[in-house]
Amino acid sequence: MGITSFYYLFLVAIGAIIYYILPKKIRWIQLLLLSIVFYCAAAKPITFLYILGSAITAYIATNVGMKKDGADGKNKIRIALMAIAIVVNLLVWFVIKADSILVDAFGVFRKVIHVLPEFNGWEFVGALGMGYYTLQVVGYILDCAWGNIEPQKNFFKLLLFVGFFPQLTTGPISRYSQLSTLFEEHPLDYKNITFGAQRILWGFFKKLVIAERAGIIVNAIWADLATYNGFYHWIVLLMYPIQMYTDFSGCTDIVLGTAEIFGIVMPENFNNPFFSRDSKEFWKRWHITLGVWAQDYVLYPVLKSSFMVKFGKFAKKKFGKNTGKFLATSLGMLCLWLVMGIWHGATKFIVGVSLWYWIVLMIGDLISPISTKLLKKFSVNTDNFSWHLFQSMRTYVIYAVGAAFFRAENFKQALSLLGSLITMFIGNIKEVNPWIFFDDSILNTGVSYVDINILIFGVFALFVVGILREKYGYARNYIAKQGIVLRWIIWISLFILVLIKGKYGGGYNAADFIYQGF
What we know:
By secondary structure, the chain is mainly α. It is 69% helix and 0% strand. It has helices spanning 6-21, 27-42, 48-63, 76-97, 99-112, 130-145, 155-163, 167-170, 176-179, 190-223, 231-261, 279-282, 288-304, 306-319, 321-344, 347-377, 385-407, 411-423, 449-472, 475-480, 484-501. Helix 2 (27-42) packs across helix 7, helix 3 packs across helix 7 and helix 14 packs across helix 15. The two termini are 17 Å apart.
């Protein structure tokens, strides 16, 4: 059962009706049962044991050693149990989801030590949303250890936090303090129902109307880079971020809209990332919950560690205050980005994505004072639309380069594509084929002119909605202030567009999302 399927909408509708009929105090129980039903329908039921085991380890680790009054006992057994629970959860995830990293590493060792046997990884079936709920559990245990939250005494409420059904598809990665609203008494609210349904509809538009069409072109070109050469490579480089964004954020909209129908507020995962003026701002707007998780549970602890404190003092003394601070921060950021790459579960993400974005961010910090002085010296007006557009386009291309490693089958293929973007103008002049923008060549990828026009309209709609979000918080807040006739025209038109022009056939899979594999 995919979250863009009719069965999912039916489950949510029936679940919401039952939810608001039940007494408020036991509604969380219905959410837990609904989550189990969804999981059994969307994944292999047996793999729910992973989620159950994760919740059990978190419950035992955070409750053993607590005093009767709820105060932290601070005993060694409790600290040890928390550490063990974190290691076990991360180890289970790594063995199942990131074993390809071990395969690659083992392959390197075999080239040196030939007697080593061949290792091709393990064939374990992973749980749906394992990458997301594992980080939630680790964050929950650490928050309990640091005294940020009180441990949940009710195991089944903790199980609901770990396995709340919408987030198991593509997140977001929630903190316990954010999802504690799961257990609150939510009255029936017309605004929650309508706003939730509207957000789900907008998510369907992103996924089915935009992402699926962009995916036709992207998949066709990536499948045969030799045939689709020249400017096709530029097309796929610049279009894939659109596909990824509308796919990932569309799913997130469906998830957040579903939760909103039940009166539950989940953290945002995207905030107009392509409006960002630099890469640092971009990563505050893209996959927000993963970035915040890595910042709070990786970067800050690393920077506060005794080793990093000593290293920072040494660097400042040796190279000066500013340089020393930069070196210490850079090392901490490297740890953060390595964790981000490992979380994605493959070597190509560590080398291509983690190191690329880390280098870009560090270079940005280094040249920022210089560029500021140069702009001031040459009296460049940076407070205008054209300059902001240039900054956003630059940030988009930087992200697109890293995204190539995300989409490529391996590191070598990504480098080949990126290299061809330049060499086509130098050594392979025959591959310069600008006519593909003016003839019917693009139709060979499997799209029609109707698809292309809908794509153009969809991207324009994203831009308009993005502007409204920047100004009003959410576009729906602006729409809600309009007359009832205009409001209904907008939402009915969007519904008809999704119903008629949504890509449901030709290989479409309702359970297929780019980030669902994590």
